[in-house]
């Protein structure tokens, strides 16, 4: 079974690169839970400023950051513009800006978690600390690592068809039909690969023994607890500042 290792976009020696994946996930959930019910501009803006500092401390370069998040930036800007056009409030500039900033502040932690975490370590942490089912977790991990192969198979499939003289030419209808048949062929290949993967995992004993041993133990040390506690303090502090200046409001 061939797997593809997805490269991380962070430096290995970055201060926050080696946090436990469960700690990162917990911090992202804390930020999400707080900002989902916050409707003002100041609270998500303060949280977003801290998030940018965390991303910089995680070793993610500015160019990589922009390339990875350009679609999210466009979506946030689009939501801000649509909110501005559709709202009838007198302070619609503030409402639109709050919407765009809140979307960014909620989304960035999730992107940061997966950009700075090795998928294998993430799966190990879920099984060890959150008691996730090993059969499902490692099956999802294996499937995730095989995703890049779909692009290579698609390219190979198109080249093979072109070598056999199958070409759509300038006809949009024929091009659509060939795209549908190629997609079906890729789906069949993916299903066959999934069956072989499931058979290989069953042969290795996944899911047979509920008391599996751990090959790569991961512990949550004091630094992880400090980071999680710091996240709670940052979110609580941002809300406290907004309450102090009278800008905080409940979204619903």
UniProtKB/TrEMBL annotation:
<protein>
    <submittedName>
        <fullName>Energy-coupling factor transporter transmembrane component T family protein</fullName>
    </submittedName>
</protein>
<keyword id="KW-0812">Transmembrane</keyword>
<keyword id="KW-1133">Transmembrane helix</keyword>
<keyword id="KW-1003">Cell membrane</keyword>
<feature type="transmembrane region" description="Helical">
    <location>
        <begin position="225"/>
        <end position="251"/>
    </location>
</feature>
<dbReference type="Pfam" id="PF02361">
    <property type="entry name" value="CbiQ"/>
</dbReference>
<dbReference type="InterPro" id="IPR003339">
    <property type="entry name" value="ABC/ECF_trnsptr_transmembrane"/>
</dbReference>
<feature type="transmembrane region" description="Helical">
    <location>
        <begin position="95"/>
        <end position="115"/>
    </location>
</feature>
<feature type="transmembrane region" description="Helical">
    <location>
        <begin position="69"/>
        <end position="89"/>
    </location>
</feature>
<feature type="transmembrane region" description="Helical">
    <location>
        <begin position="176"/>
        <end position="195"/>
    </location>
</feature>
<feature type="transmembrane region" description="Helical">
    <location>
        <begin position="21"/>
        <end position="39"/>
    </location>
</feature>
<dbReference type="InterPro" id="IPR051611">
    <property type="entry name" value="ECF_transporter_component"/>
</dbReference>
<keyword id="KW-0472">Membrane</keyword>
